[in-house]
User: Fold this.
Amino acid sequence: MKAVVVVTPKTTVLDPQGEAVRNAIHNLGMECVGTTRIGKYIEMEIDGSDLDKTRDQLEEIAKDLLSNPVIEDYRIELSAD
Amino acid sequence: MKFAVLQFPGSNCDQDFLRAVRDVLGSPARMVWHKETEIDPEETVLVPGGFSYGDYLRCGAIAQFSPVMNAVKVAAERGQTILGVCNGFQILCESGLLPGALVRNRDLHFICETIHLRIDNSRTRLTHELKDGDVLRIPIAHGEGNYRVDLETLQDMEAHGQIVFRYVDHDGKDSDSANPNGSLSNIAGICNRSGNVFGMMPHPERAVEDLLGSSDGLKLLKSLLSYA
Assistant:
């Protein structure tokens, strides 16, 4: 199985990196871009075929290690191939 | 009382801390490698600055799962004093021993300068040799020192005297221009509710002799020593 975890700063937390990138985009002349947030994309290959069990384990990995719940949200994508 | 200075791969203020407490303060002290699993009940734990595990994932995120951190959690539960400075502060937040988190500085720069620090709670193990409102000159050196916590927790921390240090100007005012990294409410250092776990971004161990530009950090380390 393949799993992807996407970690992004919470919308309530200031993201100076995202703001700097948005300003750079504006400098490129693309004023249409609003709020920009920078996160992390983590790809994992996973042994096993039990989707539900894997999803629970990924939930734990994402919550305890990959993200810090004080400042970040996460999203899990799991595919069987 | 003895000092235990933790050492992770990538720590770089461990020797400064050891020198400050052993050679300048004259207290017994030892280095504790991150794979060790025991902290003595009479030890005060110092979690040094640096870049533990290369700051991979998030600052302090990997270090929180080191074997020695289990021993630190046990020591904290026993009521022993724990002080984390800079990356040490980040590690203690990541491990849940302190509330909040430290994110990228407001202006994205790594900041290395001497700042003014105000004592906002002098009734702690780390500050009892000082008075409320005293201003110290202590260096900072960090890229991720922007303290963040939700509003409800912040109010709770204020009510329980957990905000120990704030960044101020030379007159002792916590103005926005005196805030080097964008920290919420100019917060530079905090403690837990029980008052035995401390975290701060400024480096007291780098301000222990006049030759270093300031010896103000010694006042904090002396407080730890005389508390025991």
Chain B has five helices and eleven strands. The mean pLDDT of chain B is 96.
